[in-house]
Amino acid sequence: MTTGKINVQTENIFPIIKKFLYSDHEIFLRELVANAVDATGKIKTLTSIGENKTELGDLVVEVIIDKENKTLTIRDRGLGMTAEEVEKYINQIAFSGAEEFVNKYKDQTEGNLIGKFGLGFYSGFMVSDKVEIYSRSFKATEQEAIRWTCDGSPDYTMTTDTKADRGTDIILHINEESLEFLEEARIKTMLDKYCRFLPVSIKFKEELINNTTPAWVKKPSELTHEDYLAFYKELYPMAEDPLFYIHLNVDFPFNLTGILYFPKLKKNLEVQKNKIQLYCRQVFVTDSVEGIVPEFLTLLHGVIDSPDIPLNVSRSYLQSDSNVKKISNHILKKVSDKLEELFKENRTDFEAKWDDIGVFIKYGMLSEEKFYDRAKSFCLLKNTDAKYFTFDEYKLAVEPNQTDKDNKIVYTYTSNLEEQYAFVEAAKNKGYDVLQMDGVIDSHFVNFLEYKLENTSFIRVDADTADNLIKKEDKRPILLSEEEQTAIKELTEKAVEKEKYFVQLEGLSETDAPALITRPEFMRRMKEMAASGGGYEFMTGMGEQFNLIINANHPLMKKVISAATEDEKQKMIRQTVDLAMLSQGLLKGEALSGFIRRSVELI
Ligand code: ADP
Ligand code: MG
Question: What would the CATH number be for the domain defined by 379-469?
Fold first, then answer.
């Protein structure tokens, strides 16, 4: 028997490890199973190059709970370790990793540190009073199996053992605070989370718990469409079928495999996020991939697997890591390629999917310049007749009729087809095309496109009268005399709240409505931005403001002028204004019942 001191300066590092890894205790199982899987992979390799003379046998890794003795065992049939290897890899190397960790984090008061820090093997001490290793190397002669014991102090003992099978048992003597790890259900949940796709069979309670060849490790040519869908269901049993998918497979200049799925996006972007799972050689690491893929791509689902992403470091370090940047750019490029391919190969299908992928593409264009540059050739604009155009196509289509007197092209749009129906009609009657911009992020997208597209502006159909949406030539003259105009204006101002409605007389056509309420484009957008925290917060307190436009050329105005009494004039104007409000959904409560009463009187 040999005893010794593990090669560290810190007197007792285990209390510190326990404290700092507190919130992440369960990763010990991932680390120990991953080591068992590594050892199994190594014996396979050694066998294939003729270096192992022992019988390969059943290579399953087992996780065994012994409630009575309060132990949890991780057993493998891998290459095993000799006494020298334990000395080197456990006593020196693994421990120096642990020490490095402690030195780095001892000044922090609390820690929620991700997974491993070269801690691997020693993470077992987070949940144990004592850890034992029984191991028999493939190189060992009969007497040479070893037993190593350590109770968490830097002292360890090592003796020879009679273990007959090649491989390693790691036995954790679970401590009082960690008894949860002797519960079957708890261990099963952890195995499902971390070990679901490990490349070596894992047995727990006589059952194999993992799929050793998940779809992403296979070649695309080996997989059918159904295989991809089945794997999606395996990852997200509750989800609807995805729209399409991308198989990632790179080995230079970094290693990356994975499958990304485009889910059907619902209106709410937030809940869809963070479904991508990150693996490192088939070991689950995290399902929070911020910093590794561009933010908008976190809307996708699926799996990314890379041994080249440094997992044991902070997020901010991750973002500056050059491998991570390359990976991120690569994924961005693959996603753009795929979308472009779909657009080019089957435009009809692409259009059919647009309502689901449009929001994703627009979000990407808003948040990543590089993606905008790619997507501007296949991003679609949809009009109120459900026809789709690329940016270039749309410009060509509307330019002739929608260029204003300053040579600017004006795109008209609606944010709500039902509510703005009358305005949409009016704009269409002028021969204008109206875009549907009614998605969750379309108000931002409109601002953004206006800034991106040259010489183009957007105006919502209810921002002005149809005549004025696109200012072409000088206005139509008003047919009323100056005094008549003043009279109408005064009557109208009496009928509404002054702070809310700005009254204007205009000479529209006789067939236009007698009165019209519009929401000035600029004010409305400022308010929308304020509502979403875009830096115009001072405007949130302001009430909404409208333009009340009276069509002075409407025959009704002549009637008002020639009405017998002042009271009758006021009533007619009141009624006209109320009708305009009604069509905007602005007539409510007392005002609405007043309007109904007056209408009945009139009949
Ligand atoms: P890492 O896995 O990152 O090398 P660990 O602390 O997890 O760090 O393990 C340290 C070393 O101990 C491993 O590199 C390996 O050489 C050895 N080791 C650990 N577990 C086993 C095992 N089950 N079988 C054989 N060797 C092992
Ligand atoms: Mg390890």
Answer: 3.40.50.11260
